[in-house]
Amino acid sequence: xxxxxxxxxxxxxxxxxxxxxxxxxxxxxxxxxxxxxxxxxxxxxxxxxxxxxxxxxxxxxxxxxxxxxxxxxxxxxxxxxxxxxxxxxxxxxxxxxxxxxxxxxxxxxxxxxxxxxxxxxxxxxxxxxxxxxxxxxxxxxxxxxxxxxxxxxxxxxxxxxxxxxxxxxxxxxxxxxxxxxxxxxxxxxxxxxxxxxxxxxxxxxxxxxxxxxxxxxxxxxxxxxxxxxxxxxxxxxxxxxxxxxxxxxx
Length: 250
Ligand code: PGA
Hints:
binds 2-phosphoglycolic acid; 8 strands; TIM Barrel; about 15% strand; globular
C-alpha cells in the first residue's frame, strides 16, 4: 500500500522567525494527531537550517523548494543539493510550475536537477502539470507525459521519487481540478511510469495532487484511487487549514 504524503510548499513567504513559529506549531499538532501519512514542509532557503532544528524531534520532514545541479562553483544565487542535505533536508521540490514559467526551467534542466538530487540522497518531488491553454487545446496528457518522461530521462531508480500533478490553472487560483479530472491525469502518469519502468514501480509511486487544495476539498481528492496526498501552497501557511488537510490524508 502507498502511504499518502502531504507537503506544505511555503513558496516565498515567512522570515526565519515566522518560519520557526509556523513549523513548531505544525510539528506539535502533527505529533498530537499522529496522522497515518507522511508530512513535510518546504520553507525558504534562509530558514531551512533553523526549521530543520525545530523539527528534529518530530516526524515532519524538511523539504527545499529548488536546487542547482552542480555541487558548487560560480553560480550566483544558486544552492546545491549538497548544501540542502547538510541543512537537514530530506526532500527537494523540483520543476514546480512557477520555476518553469517564471524562471525558464525546461524539462532538461529539471532532469539534471532530479539526477543530482537523487544522487545526493535527497528524495525528489517532481512537479508536472499543464497550463489552461494546454488543457483547452486537449494536449494535457501529451504535455504531462513529456514532463514525466523527460524529467526522468536516465533515472533508473525511482524509489525515492514522488510526482506532484499540479495543473497550472489551479495553482493559487482557487480553481481546483475536479476529483475526476485529477484522477484521470494521475492514472495516466501511473501508466507512463509503468511503460518507462515496470508495474511494481508504477504501483509504488506516490502521486500527489496540488492546486488550490483546501480543507473543504482535500478528502474527496485524496479518496481517489491514484491520488496519494497533496502538495499544498496557500493553505499550508495556516496551521489549522494545513492540519485539516493532513488529517484528510491520514
Ligand atoms: P496552491 O499552490 O495550493 O496555493 O494552489 C500549490 C502549489 O503551488 O504547490
